[in-house]
Write a structure and sequence with these properties.
The complex is a heterodimer of chains A (230) and B (378). With 230 residues, chain A is α/β, with parallel strands linked by helices. Chain A is built from 6 helices and 10 strands, in the order βββαββαβαααβαβββ. Chain A has helices spanning 48-55, 83-90, 106-116, 121-134, 150-162, 180-197; strands at residues 6-15, 22-32, 37-41, 63-68, 71-75, 91-94, 168-172, 200-205, 216-221, 224-228. In chain A, α3 runs parallel beside α5 (150-162). The radius of gyration of chain A is 17 Å and the shape is globular. The two termini of chain A are 24 Å apart. Chain B is of the alpha+beta class and 378 residues long. Chain B has 2 domains: 4-43 and 256-375, no CATH class; 60-236, no CATH class. Chain B is built from 11 helices and 12 strands. Chain B has helices at residues 4-11, 13-51, 76-81, 180-188, 192-200, 224-235, 242-253, 255-285, 288-296, 301-331, 342-369, and strands at residues 55-58, 72-73, 86-101, 104-113, 124-127, 136-140, 150-153, 156-164, 175-179, 210-211, 213-218, 238-241. In chain B, strands 1, 3, 4, 5, 6, 7, 8, 9, 11 and 12 form a 10-stranded mixed sheet that branches. In chain B, strands 2-10 form a two-stranded antiparallel sheet. The radius of gyration of chain B is 30 Å and the shape is elongated. The chains are: A alpha/beta (230), B alpha+beta (378). At the A-B interface, α1, α2 and α3 of A face α1 and α9 of B.
Chain lengths: 230, 378
């Protein structure tokens, strides 16, 4: 059996202490493999964002064990020294409101992370142009984010998330700001990317209409994560 | 690597330039304040430098004509001439006068000297020296008069025959030069009614043959302090070397003003620092979301620190350039001399760079505290 790209074992997250302590995630245990698309489903406040930020090494779990790409990154404490390096080399992020850097043009937004990883400007530009072409926004590379439509911005955001050849893409409601047709198009694109580029894609979503496009569904309710069959 | 600071500035260039110009005007004011101080020192030294004496003989127990009232009998010059080492002897009067030009009052500082001694305690810009008594005067261009203009003074009307350029007193008043005896009459001669009154009171009218100082030049090889001691011993007057008289002017007379200007400069620098800090902090606060995204996608602290630091330093540099232009343009409109020298500008530039770096620290501190998780969730 192949090694899971994300493995959580009894991960919990508690905010606060004593009487005011709130447990956002309770002993979550699951594995996600390369090429899988996984939906994190659940009502607001159920702990989805906490879960995704723990996978992205942004929020420190309170207990348990977390492995990314076969490497234990948390075992009752962080075992990595530079979580940002881990993120920029292994993880791509897609946000609800695309969150492109407003003062960088499309090409610069996409090449920023590879350049931070030491890729030359020339090579990162070649790769970024390929991705932008692939995502149908190749003609927008000199545009500023404010000059793009919502759908175009989200495609650029997807290109940015792929620019560092990530093994994991974490998407936080990537279709929430799009109309039904565009939302479906973006989800289909993510599914295609996951399968073609062997990337594990974890998507936080409220939109149950998109569920057929996911390989697996993890439902989060009151901090409890359980696998759900569709 | 993409320069984030440069891209961010390009994105909101107008706002950045206006901000820099605003700070620049403050820096310009700092430069002008330093220039005003330099101008004061420069102005204070114009007259002593033009007089170019080795020794200044003044009334006993006074600091001399620039600091206190000093009166000496003019005929002291004959006995001073007899001292060993003394070359030239020039009695001089100083007094403030108010004249009018184009119906506007002008305060001037009048210097009276013996016009036929061959001595000229000024540097002529245009025109010639005084050749006719009771008729001619030399004025500075700052008075607004031109060659050939008439100036009524006391009982006479004088014609401007020569002009100096930027010759002012330590107080910044433009200089006028006239013959010693006319200057003496202006200063010491009472009106006829006053003289009559004094006679009825049994008193004597004061002689007008008084001067405020007698300046001496020495023959080569004579030590000024030695000659000064001799004059003090035999003539019972106060004697200062040129350096001592200069010190009285620059240290004693304008020291308080210099301190005042120094205080203003320090306060302005502190205000500039606070404003630069606030601007950088506000600029950082305005980019919290972008900073959170940068951290989330893995940007190391050094990239964020560089972005804020570079913007801060660039703001300082632009503000300094703007301030310099502002100071140089506006310096000419000040009524008193403002002297801007490159070394002061260079020192201020270094201060501004240090201030900019320090100012960026509050922004950097805030940026490094931004939680990358805040970029998630729309």
């Amino acid at each position: 059996m192949s090694t899971p790209i994300i493995a959580m074992r009894g991960i919990s997250k508690t905010y606060g202490t004593g009487d005011s302590a709130v447990t956002a995630i309770k002993e979550a245990t699951f594995e996600i493999f390369s090429g899988e698309t996984v939906a994190l489903l659940g009502p607001s406040g159920s702990g989805k964002t906490t879960l995704i930020t723990m996978i992205g090494c942004i929020t420190e779990p309170s207990m348990g064990k977390l492995s990314l790409n076969g490497e234990v990154v948390y075992d009752e404490k962080w075992l990595i020294h530079d979580e940002r390096k881990l993120r920029r080399e292994n993880i791509g992020f897609i946000f609800q409101a695309h969150n492109l850097i407003p003062f960088l043009n499309v090409l610069e937004n996409v090449t920023l992370v590879p350049q931070m990883n030491g890729v030359s400007t020339k090579d990162s530009n070649v790769k970024a142009r390929e991705l932008l072409e692939y995502l149908g926004v190749g003609d927008k590379e000199t545009k500023m984010p404010s000059q793009l439509s919502g759908g175009q911005s989200q495609r650029v955001a997807i290109a940015r998330s792929l620019a560092n050849n990530p093994k994991i893409i974490l998407a936080d409601e990537p279709t929430a700001a799009l109309d039904g047709e565009r939302a479906l198009s973006v989800m289909q694109l993510l599914r295609k990317l996951a399968h073609e580029q062997n990337v594990a894609i974890v998507v936080v979503t409220h939109d149950e209409r998109m569920l057929p496009l996911f390989d697996r569904i993890l439902r989060v309710e009151d901090g409890v994560v359980r696998e759900e069959q569709y | 690597m993409i320069n984030l600071a440069q891209r961010d500035i390009s994105h909101s260039l107008g706002k950045f330039i206006v901000t820099a110009l605003g700070v620049g005007m403050l820096i310009g004011v700092v430069l002008i304040m330093i220039g005003v101080y330099r101008g004061m020192v420069h102005d204070a030294m114009i007259v002593p430098n033009d007089i170019a004496a080795d020794l200044w003989v003044v009334q006993k127990d006074t600091l001399g004509p620039f600091a206190e009232n000093s009166r000496l009998h003019e005929d002291l010059k004959y006995s001073l001439k007899g001292f060993l080492g003394v070359d030239e002897v020039h009695p001089i009067t100083f007094q403030s006068l108010q004249i009018s030009h184009a119906k506007k009052p002008i305060r001037v500082f009048a210097l009276g000297y013996d016009v036929f001694s061959g001595y000229a305690p000024y540097t002529l810009n245009v025109g010639r020296s005084i050749q006719i008594l009771h008729k001619e005067i030399i004025v500075d261009t700052k008075t607004g008069f031109k060659l050939g203009d008439s100036i009524p003074l006391g009982r006479e009307t004088y014609t401007v025959v020569g002009m100096t350029h930027k010759a002012v007193s330590s107080g910044g008043d433009p200089m006028v030069y006239l013959d010693l005896h006319e200057a003496q009459e202006l200063q010491f001669l009472f009106s006829n009614e006053q003289i009559r009154n004094d006679r009825f009171r049994g008193g004597n009218s004061v002689s007008t043959a008084m001067v405020n100082t007698v300046v001496l030049t020495l023959k080569e090889g004579f030590d000024a302090k030695t000659v000064a001691r001799e004059i003090q011993r035999w003539k019972h007057q106060e004697v200062y070397t040129q350096q001592e008289q200069s010190n009285i002017l620059t240290k004693n007379l304008i020291e308080r003003s210099a301190k005042q200007i120094g205080m203003f400069t320090v306060i302005l620098l502190i205000v500039s620092s606070v404003i630069i800090s606030l601007i950088i902090y506000t600029m950082t606060i305005g980019k919290m979301k972008e900073i959170a995204i940068l951290k989330l996608i893995g940007a190391p602290n050094i990239i964020i620190t560089k972005m804020i630091g570079q913007q801060s330093v660039l703001l300082g540099i632009l503000a300094f350039i703007g301030g310099n232009i502002f100071a140089n343009v506006s310096a000419n409109f000040f009524p008193k001399t403002v002297i801007l020298i490159p070394m002061d500008a260079l020192k201020l530039f270094l201060v501004i760079i240090i201030v900019s770096i320090l100012a960026s620290l509050s922004g950097i501190r805030t940026a490094l505290r931004v939680d990358p998780a805040s970029a998630i969730g729309g």
